[in-house]
Design brief:
about 250 residues; alpha/beta; Glycerol-3-phosphate (1)-acyltransferase; 9 helices; about 40% helix; globular
Length: about 250
Amino acid sequence: MSLGHLRSLLFTDPLIILVTIAFGTVSFIVSFFDSTGRLPNRLARPWGRWLLRVSRVRLTVEGVEKIDPQQSYVFVANHRSYMDIPAILASIPVEFRFYAKQGLFLVPFLGTHLKRAGHLPVVRGDARASVKSMTLGAHLIQERKISMLLFPEGGRSRGGMREFKEGAAYIAIKAGVPIVPLGLTGTGYVLPMGSNYVRGGPVILKIGDPIPTAGMKLQDRGQLTETLSRQVAELAGEALEPVESPRTA
């Protein structure tokens, strides 16, 4: 076992757990006094920053000036690591909700917190339920003036970027808000998929130009998804590796 691995097990991993428990507990408590989920989500940004700090992540953000804090967006990013979410939350000055795996909503404490904070489940295998979930996301954006974060690959990937699913484009067009490509590099090294070894290191988040969806129809979501996948791949410096799978949420 290397010295870095030992340091991660003895210091970094316990600190990550403690920071997450501390912020998670406070967020869970305040959620009972705020049905909108705004208070819990305000705590997400400092949680992300502390998580990166104790993980020894040196984050560089490019293009944040393109984001208007008063505007709602749908953000889409490549997905390589559990470090992707704290890196994004710590960097972009808007109020997020995001889609999480449906199974996480069944985990005690965590599932309750996700629901009370207003996050939504990714529905797979049921087209009708998937459309309902995406429509709800668009409704929340319009009603509460918030933003959504999605990882259109459908999960983390070790290799090149997988084909994007169309859910993010559907939500953005339905809500009538701009959609923003994000490219992350370095998170897969900091915390590799399937590993609990946090190595620290540099992470870069590149924010692309917001793409207006005003005037687009739902039939345009395929073309918009293709544009997004190309732009995210370019920002992240990744190769596109399409897979044979239907595009759903």
